[in-house]
Amino acid sequence: MEANKTYPDPSAIREELVQKYPAKVAKKRTKSIIINDPETVPEVQANVRTVPGIITQRGCSYAGCKGVVLGPTRDIVNITHGPIGCSFYSWLTRRNQTKPETDADANFITYCFSTDMQEENIVFGGEKKLKVAIQEAYDLFHPKSIAIFSTCPVGLIGDDVHAAAREMKEKLGDCNVFGFSCEGYRGVSQSAGHHIANNGVFKHMVGRNNEKKEGKFRLNLLGEYNIGGDAFEIERIFKKCGITLVSSFSGNSTVGQLENAHMADLNVIMCHRSINYMGEMMETKYGIPWMKINFVGAESSAKSLRRIAQYFGDEGLKAKVEEVIAEELPKVKAVIDEIRPRTEGKTAMLFVGGSRAHHYQDLFTELGMTTVAAGYEFAHRDDYEGREVLPGIKIDADSKNIEELKVEADPELYKPRKSEAELEALKAEGLEINGYEGMMKQMMKKSLVVDDISHYESEKLIEIYKPDIFCAGIKEKYVVQKMGVPLKQLHSYDYGGPYTGFEGAVNFYRDIDRMVNNPVWKLIKAPWETAAGENDGVLEATYAEA
Amino acid sequence: MEANKTYPDPSAIREELVQKYPAKVAKKRTKSIIINDPETVPEVQANVRTVPGIITQRGCSYAGCKGVVLGPTRDIVNITHGPIGCSFYSWLTRRNQTKPETDADANFITYCFSTDMQEENIVFGGEKKLKVAIQEAYDLFHPKSIAIFSTCPVGLIGDDVHAAAREMKEKLGDCNVFGFSCEGYRGVSQSAGHHIANNGVFKHMVGRNNEKKEGKFRLNLLGEYNIGGDAFEIERIFKKCGITLVSSFSGNSTVGQLENAHMADLNVIMCHRSINYMGEMMETKYGIPWMKINFVGAESSAKSLRRIAQYFGDEGLKAKVEEVIAEELPKVKAVIDEIRPRTEGKTAMLFVGGSRAHHYQDLFTELGMTTVAAGYEFAHRDDYEGREVLPGIKIDADSKNIEELKVEADPELYKPRKSEAELEALKAEGLEINGYEGMMKQMMKKSLVVDDISHYESEKLIEIYKPDIFCAGIKEKYVVQKMGVPLKQLHSYDYGGPYTGFEGAVNFYRDIDRMVNNPVWKLIKAPWETAAGENDGVLEATYAEA
Amino acid sequence: MLLRHTTSEVKEREGLTINPAKTCQPIGAMYAALGIHGCLPHSHGSQGCCAYHRSTLTRHYKEPVMAATSSFTEGASVFGGQANLLAAIDTIFSVYDPDIIAVHSTCLSETIGDDLQQITRKALDDGKIPEGKYVIYASTPSFIGSHVTGYANMVAGMASQFAVSTGEKKDQVNLVAGWMEPSDMRELKRISKEMGAKIVLFPDTSDVLDAPQTGKHVFYPKGGVTVPELKSTGDSKFTLALGCISAEPAAIALDKKCSVPFETVDMPIGLSATDRFIMALSKAAGVKVPDSITAERGRLVDVMTDMEQYFHGKKVALFGDPDQLIPLTEFLLDLGMKPRHIVSGTPGGRFDKRMKEILERAPGANFKNGLNADMFLLHQWIKNEPVDLLIGNTYGKYIARDEDIPFVRFGFPILDRIGHSYFPSVGYSGGLRIVEKILGVLMDRQDMTANEEKFELVM
Amino acid sequence: MLLRHTTSEVKEREGLTINPAKTCQPIGAMYAALGIHGCLPHSHGSQGCCAYHRSTLTRHYKEPVMAATSSFTEGASVFGGQANLLAAIDTIFSVYDPDIIAVHSTCLSETIGDDLQQITRKALDDGKIPEGKYVIYASTPSFIGSHVTGYANMVAGMASQFAVSTGEKKDQVNLVAGWMEPSDMRELKRISKEMGAKIVLFPDTSDVLDAPQTGKHVFYPKGGVTVPELKSTGDSKFTLALGCISAEPAAIALDKKCSVPFETVDMPIGLSATDRFIMALSKAAGVKVPDSITAERGRLVDVMTDMEQYFHGKKVALFGDPDQLIPLTEFLLDLGMKPRHIVSGTPGGRFDKRMKEILERAPGANFKNGLNADMFLLHQWIKNEPVDLLIGNTYGKYIARDEDIPFVRFGFPILDRIGHSYFPSVGYSGGLRIVEKILGVLMDRQDMTANEEKFELVM
Asked: Does any CB of chain C come closer than 8 Å to the CB of residue B93?
């Protein structure tokens, strides 16, 4: 696919993006700004340190661990061990929706728990306060699980949250207490936190309940956090198809589901970056294959359903899936047909997340829009180039600091869900088991791929490309909009959504249509400014006419 | 009763009040400003024209007829025949609460109906439009009754609303249509409108349904308009005592009740001024005695109940009434005991209505507060001096224009509820049947009584007396409050109430306590003003210390 | 249901107005007259008119509203009100000592044919008007137009009866305020000052109907356009009338009497109308638009772009006065909302014309003004096509409750809330206030009706 | 129930904070730094801090919030962050070209003992700070105090690092803004101008965090106190600190460094606190209070007297920041309301002392600040004694919904409404806004819950 507009020479653009940087910085950044070729897939420098002083989109390990992976499970009491800020900022800000089955069910999503470490705890250690906090949480709420999240000072002062957790777990008896060493300085971004979270969930939760629940086609949904209700839509579709969701990691999930997840027969992965570790480890320990799927985009959703059916190899399921698709897709199509004439040919940029910048390109494609540039906040090379590059990735110091679990087949529970032969057969049919081909193969030639884009680079790109829409997060939103370009938040969805599945696709189309065609953007210039020609107005005029 | 403070010489005050007036005006006003003597009861000039140019509290005949008397009945469609204003201003502004028994019952209280007369209707006559309007109202709502209210131009251009009403009543068949010639220029105040309303209700409604409903002690409540729910409280008390309310004139009433009112055995009158005509006419035509009662004030309410019981002469009722009083009064007393130390000795002025300026003095007395000056907006001499002066009142031109119905005993329905002998016996017991002794006998010596007080006079009175509270209406409210004196609205109750009966008394005590003791009044002076002594501060300082 | 008898079937009515979206001329004249410093409005009619108008204005402003009446009785109605008015003038100057009495007529005095010009002339001839004092008048029969017309007539009266052309032009622009709040007039003065434009604003009810609590009742508060200012309007170089219905007649009167050229723009409510006002004032006063005003504009646009998702496609019903509804409807469209039903009781072809232009962007919207364009009709329309938001005066609360519609109070009268007289709705800052109010009720609704799992922290 | 696990039984807690009524120092330092013109705040710590602070401030202001970070990794945490900060300073001046970098520390850099004074000195010595540019700093460890403390520390840093005493006194008064909105700072400047008082207000986030939409992103918006102004604070004749917790430290720093005498008054929220502010400013600047200010005051008092019945005796729970809660609580008392439960997560004896004084008028009121003074406790108190009104930041909406309490958003952060950054809460006009908001929600409640026969047209 090529953009149907002419853009400046990408090499020139790359040079412009880095020219203001100090030489060393420029050299480093150049390696993360790539002119795409879907055929050859050039190497992207990714998952490396952000240059100090650069205004980055990135957050920290704590955010990835507590905020992203553990946050959405409703019945864990998540205690942040540290000064108050970290718990405060991760309090309800990610829109992880959750729906307890009854009013009596535990739901701590709306709560914020912290040890609120004070200077004396830094000086004399905070373990004691942490244990008191755990006891108090237990006494007040009697949760099934309590998780502890370490913030920056914790590791530095030598608090052993794991020991404290073990001690309290034993003491409390009926409460599973475990900790995470997800200090903010670990790794180079949220990504470290995801890995730490995966390790902890795998060690402390998965495998605790061997009960085999009902259902013929039983899978886990990995890397879907139910922002804006995304998981609800996928749940709806699964239910309609007769697919049983054993556990979600971790949107709308419960402790009970996670502890039972290893009894499923397939792991399907949405956000590759945040959770592929879990798929790997569960395959190794329990013999459950995993498969990258994508429920963002109507066509992608249909394709994902077909792949699941193909995996299970059941004709009834295949027929049911086709029936569901046949019922759902025309409704989506009707909306697309109405909207696409207004969105066709427009351009988008996506700089967000670890998989979202890839997934949402599908929706834009469905709208006839071209992604002229994209990149991730916290991805690794495989998210760009595909998992085939994994063996070639050098592990640097920052990654080495993240524990790599040694996982072996469980002597009792390991049971390959598909034989080697079956898997080979499926792969031969074109089913990508345990694989992910990355974002770049899908993007057009000469589009720009920028990892860990800086504020400066994104402003430049907007000035040059004048995209019709820019996708990023809250920190970028009003900066970009000040330039007259609507920004779609792909973390919080601008408090809209869901955007998954078929109904979600329709929501997205309507939102994008509204944003790129909203006449409000034409009101920016005051009439006396235009009249007097006081402004160069080049960029603005373009937006005004867009 | 004498005020427990020393006030300036009332004669001097009277002179000050009128000194700025042109000579003729001063002379006229002096006759309406009276130094009270409860023993001798001097004559008050009342129910005379307001001097043009004087800023008066008064309204018009239409307001008295449509606004006061007919407004509260929920299931009449009240069409104002005239330009749009009159209907607009009387739309929901009097707080006549009403509570249909079921959701299906008619309730037009929230609606405003008008013929919205245009210039062409003034030039060529508006009867045709009126009849169209009646037909449209009928087609839309199928009400039991439609009433037509004439505004100023109607009489002048010669529209015959009565003929139109007759014609439409006949045409519609099942709808009672009748009109009121209550043009705003008739009479000198709302009072004319009350009289016109009474005549119309008596002619067109009372007596249409001779069914005798259940109940041993059956009475009508006259002159109670259910502002702020006053009637609800009285209804509560009646019910508790076993007294049957046949019809209310007209708070929370229905057409059906009014049409059946003549089947009651007693009329009790709250607002003497607005409705004594009805009591008189019903006595003459049906033989129902009337009695002035007052449910404003806890003691007054108890007394009124006892009088009703005394009238009916039933020992069971008497016992029940005592039981109810014994149950209700202590609760009131408890509140009074709490509040009175904070209100004792404070002063009030009341310039409002036709009976309210009298009734509310009872509540102030219960609070230990002294009424230093009072007067009515639209009363007649008998409301001040008592009905014994009635024979001596000269009927002037303005009053002559109000139709005086010729009422005779109904050949079929006249039935004296009490024999002459019985009535005489009751009177001998001290029961004031068909009588009213007026306001002045209750007020302290040397208090001021001012009829139709002007804005100018009231400001002067406030300056001189510095009352703790002033009672009037919305037009006066913020004027008086600008002087640092709280004003209690006794038309709308400042959107509070009810103030009748026992629960109402408690409401009033609390409201007055709040108003006269609210520290907010001490905040009026800016600190730099006090500090710099820039203001004479005499008046203000007094309020601040009060 | 509070309005249980309102059904969805819309039938043409010719005789009956139900729940009017207007009231009568005199109250508008009274309000306008309060915008002259030292002026006592006088109602030439039955005293009920004056009482009703004072009550309604008082309830809207929670402020003293002083006005006198000719206190007609039947005699006056038959023999004419001249004697009453002459007596009133005498009494008023003695007792209340105003600089000006502004007399307006009523349906009563108009029906009997009282000629205010002739009577006030007689008062002058009879020496009843003290030296240096004035009696002005406006004919405001209740059976023509609406409260808005009455306002326009009194404002035109101010212009035509005070303005003098000395032959020497002044470097100032007349700003004729359409019916707006004291806060709005205050804001217009602030904006003009910020722009460096010398203006005479009239009428001007700021510092009159938003007077401070001082422990004293100031009968003539410090605000209001002064007589010298009104006189000088004849020498102004230009007149800008804000509102084709409530303000333009005064501009025409000035043009006629003193040849002051004029332009009429919409009342500056919302972005586009304020833009036009600023441009017009800039042109008329010969001043450049300063950066500070451009920044104010930018702040409004900022909120409009950032919050567009919450407005987009929301259906709105609105009612009120034409000079406000016109720019407000345009603003709603600029916000991406969908005005669906609009009524104004005030008659006039200009409303229809402007609305048609503006509503080209909103195909199928219902709108009606003049006779029988009442709130009953509006309610019926709403029943047929429900809306997400209702905007109008306090009477709208009955519809809002019955139909469960978020409700923003706007217009006249607002009887049950405060704020309108203190915080402007005009200008860019006024636009921000409108946007804040609308967003507030829409988001309150979302918070109220969201399922627990959909209850949002951030919006 | 959104907070279904909150029960009414209050138990002392020593380890666990639940639903905090505060956040950490660095965000306050970042906010304060944005109030200097041409300044880029810099977070010396892990990049998550910076991301979190920028996100929260952005959600509150719906505006760009630019700030950089030292992007600590494990290496830096072990070996110290000097290299990171030096590199950051280099990069920032190259790429973003600020006039000033305002560095604040974090729990991370404080724990490892990074010395900002020493590192910035080294940057200067190494020539990493271009001529005419500045790097200032504040120590803001997250494990001490709260976001309010961080604000105070950065503001004190501005004063102590910029102020110079030339020996020649200037006829100006320093106004140290406690933590308040851009709209509040704008209003303080307006009031001072109206009073004729020459002031230097710092910090000043107006025209920074309420920047206009212009189609361009202005990296350093036009607002903010300038370096020359900050320098001149050392020559000012007096300093007025608005808020004993968030503003006083800067006043003390100025006194210490340049011997500028100071007075601390409460933030001017509500009537009494604004009175004291006006008196103090009048005295400090040697200006008389003009009639226009007295009139503004009078308008607020007017509404307070006229509407007293709606406030009287209504119980209120509130939470937030101490310098706002103190005058707000006093204002509620002036309105006749009953503050019942008050928490602030920010520690400090001053809060306790002032609250005790103020709450003498409200016997039995619960209040607590500092450790474990959290919204969980507030909610429990409310369950034990229900209230008619809740005032606080957006997080209050969960309690408000569960307990069905009318809710007024006030404080930081407000994530789900707009308006706070555009319309001031300080001064008399700000008091009017608070009153309008409170009345609005109380009357909305009345309208919502009234039986049909009790549904009021007029209030």
From this structure: yes
**Closest to C90 (Cβ–Cβ): which among B53, B106, B539?**
B53
| pLDDT tens profile B503-538 | 999 999 999 999 999 999 999 999 999 654 454 322
CA dihedral B302, B308, B312, B316 (to 10 degrees): -20
Tokens of B90: 């009387």
Place of tokens 């853009």: A7
Gap between the Cα atoms of B261 and B254, Å rounded: 11
Residue with tokens 């007529």: C105
pLDDT (tens digit per residue) in B346-376: 999 999 999 999 999 999 999 999 999 999 9
| DSSP per residue, C413-438 | ---S---TTTS--BHHHHHHHHHHHH
Residue A114 has pLDDT above 90, yes or no: yes
How wide is the angle at C-alpha D161 spanned by C-alphas D159 and D162, nearest 5°? 70
Lookup: tokens for D299: 């308008």
Q: Are residues C336 and C250 in the same domain?
A: no
Which amino acid is it at C105?
S
Tell me the C-alpha distance between C378 and A415, whole Å.
69
Amino acid identity at A532: A
As a whole-number percent, the residues of chain C with pLDDT over 70 amount to 100
| Residue C429, domain extent | 295-452
The CA distance from A181 to A199, in Å, is 11
Taking alpha carbons only, the member of B522, B544, B526 closest to residue B534 is B526
C-alpha C19/C-alpha C28 separation (Å) is 19
Tell me: the pLDDT tens digits for A142-190? 999 999 999 999 999 999 999 999 999 999 999 999 999 999 999 999 9
- The verdict on residue B86 lying in a domain is yes
CA dist A239 and C103 (Å) reads: 76
Distance from CA of C393 to the nearest CA of D (A): 11
For residue A401, what pLDDT band results from cuts at 50, 70 and 90? confident
Question: Which CATH number is B83's domain given?
Answer: 3.40.50.1980
Q: Which domain holds residue A80?
A: 61-184
Q: Is C303 on the interface with D (CB under 8 A)?
A: yes
Q: Mark whether B326 is an active-site residue.
A: no
Query: What number is the average pLDDT over the span C248-260?
Result: 98
Report the alpha-carbon distance of residue D452 to residue D455 in Å, rounded.
Answer: 5
CA pair distance B145, B75, nearest whole angstrom: 7
Q: How many distinct structural domains can be found in chain A?
A: 1
How would you classify the pairing of strands D407-409 and D389-392? Answer: parallel
Same domain, C304 and C429: yes
* Residue whose pair of structure tokens reads 């209030």 in the numeric block: D459
Q: How would DSSP label each residue in C264-302?
A: EE---BSHHHHHHHHHHHHHHHT-PPPHHHHHHHHHHHH
Same domain, D285 and D299: no
Window D:391-410, CB contacts with C under 8 Å: 394-395, 397-398, 401
- Residue A511 touches chain C, beta carbons under 8 Å: yes
Q: What is the 8-class DSSP label of residue B296?
A: B
Distance from CA of C424 to the nearest CA of B (A): 22
Residues C54 and C186 in one domain: no
Residue recorded with tokens 């005050």 = B13
Closest chain C CA to residue D456:
C416
Q: Which of A357, A188, A199, A204 is nearest to A272 (CA)?
A: A357
Touching, B vs D (3+ Cβ pairs under 8 A): yes
In total, the C-beta contacts within 8 angstroms joining chain C to chain D are: 139
Which residues of chain C neighbour B137 with C-beta distances below 8 Å? 16
Residue B302 lies in a domain: no
Residue D241 has pLDDT above 50, yes or no: yes
Q: Which chain D residues are Cβ-neighbours of B514 within 8 angstroms?
A: 308-309, 312-313, 336
Q: Which residues pair with C102 in a beta bridge?
A: C41, C136
Residue A87 in domain: yes
**Could you give the CA distance from residue A331 to residue A326 in angstroms, rounded to a whole number?**
9
